């Protein structure tokens, strides 16, 4: 008996064809578009196929391609990217001719001849798959493009993805119908461009531009013949044919692509052989997603921006949708960061407290622009990383707990200027005498108009105030007490004014707890000496209120956000409250804060006006200098980020051994070295004061007094120019 030809064995071969491709549906409706012979199906099969086909969508449901989002600095320079799919769309004329030819030769050599579905390729694949154990695909580039568009739509909308190996006959039929429809709407060049931009090459690298950057450190326009053949070969099996992990398989596949290009007439035999003789020529250049690889050591600022996006309803109804927008929406997130300032801040923070030192000591520098609240720098002495190891952490020392920070750090004496403002608000002058004699406030009732009974009473456990400098428990001018950071002077001033008046001022300047995010509590007067744990960003914003003569501006990181289509998202505008503090009082206060900064911290070695205040908590585990120029305010912090109980004193930090550690010893010089590099780019002229002389001595602290270094009281206190401390007990 004659042997049957397999293609016509209807019980076997055509049964497989019908089951796999759903030809009963296919031929009835796509005959014209596919140029399939109608004789292959008849009667009920064609009728049923037409009905089924009519029910399938003819419009391709599209979403914008997933594109990475970019966080950029104030000048538009990229800091970090976020992506689910690393892709950089380019136009076809930005893709080398070799790349275009390679993908056509290996994936769809009849690309310019068919109308979306290739009948010849389909028939060839049907016969092969029905008569052998190997599988052969028949999808054209148009069909592959359609499938990638569908998968992108499904991913973005949480639907079942129709990836290879999971497609049903209906999925395949829909793909064919959409491919034919698409060819009527798009040119071949548009389809090829779309395909080369959407297709997966490896891992999370999608599109030819991202692939060229990753594997060869070049753009798609620069791909040569060998490069193009390598990439074109990968799309069949991105993992198995990845030249980075499977170079031998990738090289063999490249050579197959080159042979296909010769067969298609794109290249000569000599060109093929020359390319086949080359090595792979890889130059792997990874592009990391997220803040870990942020430029200019801006990982912590990047994390802060990331959290701003996730917490803002402008970017979606919930954090999950906001993250998806960030990963796939092609956002350009323009921020307030100044790259020059950021680099300088990171360098100085690490120079002051080297990250390799393992005692658990940290440093932070954060700068805001006074007139806008724009955050210009945010750096610390560690590397933004989830990995264990010295100098690695994802905790942002500069910000509140809710924004990625820790518990905050005790503010120490940096809160004393706000007590001085309340003193001035009560009708005193900075040269008026404050009773700094009293050191025991057990049972004392502090005026506090906002509390029941108008008083805040200290308990029977007592509150004993100590000063770092001896012989300072005596009446003294207020400015002298602030200059030398005398605790008994600060508490005496509060006792003579009103705790609620003080917290009104700190509230207006935005001072709040790093964890609670609540203002200072007048029921607990220990806040006067800085027991409250705050973030450096909070203190920078608070002092900027003094730097701007009473205007408080909320800290701000975002200036503009647009998506890949050019749509703009609403971001918080500059939000400033004017005249929240008294301008005249700040001018008077500057007559003390300027010499603290310029004489004690800079030691005269700076050529522009600065003002500020040091701070140290009572355990010397948290030290500060917070100060301002005409245009910028910077908080510099050095301390133990692991425990408030672990002191800095008695340790070697940055190569220097410290018996004691005050804000003037490490944080202050760090601030000066940094501001010398960056202040000139912003207003840095005169800081207004009332003309009073430096309150370095008691006599000069009194208006009209001399600044004589022979003054007995000055000699008494000048032995220790780092006179500051903060009692954190209540």
Automatic annotation (TrEMBL):
What are the UniProt keywords, alphabetically? Carboxypeptidase, Cell shape, Cell wall biogenesis/degradation, Glycosyltransferase, Hydrolase, Multifunctional enzyme, Peptidoglycan synthesis, Protease, Transferase
Any one Gene Ontology molecular-function term assigned to this protein's record = serine-type D-Ala-D-Ala carboxypeptidase activity
Q: Where is this region: Disordered?
A: 684-730
Record's catalysed reaction(s):
Preferential cleavage: (Ac)2-L-Lys-D-Ala-|-D-Ala. Also transpeptidation of peptidyl-alanyl moieties that are N-acyl substituents of D-alanine; [GlcNAc-(1->4)-Mur2Ac(oyl-L-Ala-gamma-D-Glu-L-Lys-D-Ala-D-Ala)](n)-di-trans,octa-cis-undecaprenyl diphosphate + beta-D-GlcNAc-(1->4)-Mur2Ac(oyl-L-Ala-gamma-D-Glu-L-Lys-D-Ala-D-Ala)-di-trans,octa-cis-undecaprenyl diphosphate = [GlcNAc-(1->4)-Mur2Ac(oyl-L-Ala-gamma-D-Glu-L-Lys-D-Ala-D-Ala)](n+1)-di-trans,octa-cis-undecaprenyl diphosphate + di-trans,octa-cis-undecaprenyl diphosphate + H(+)
Q: Which GO terms describe its biological process?
A: cell wall organization; peptidoglycan biosynthetic process; proteolysis; regulation of cell shape
Q: Where is the composition biased (Low complexity)?
A: 699-708
Glycosyl transferase family domain location, by residue? 76-261
Which residue ranges does UniProt annotate as crossing the membrane? Answer: none
Domain annotation Penicillin-binding protein transpeptidase: ranges:
364-631
PANTHER family, from UniProt? BINDING PROTEIN TRANSPEPTIDASE, PUTATIVE-RELATED, PEPTIDOGLYCAN GLYCOSYLTRANSFERASE
Provide the protein name: Transglycosylase domain-containing protein
Q: What organism is listed for this UniProt entry? A: Auritidibacter ignavus
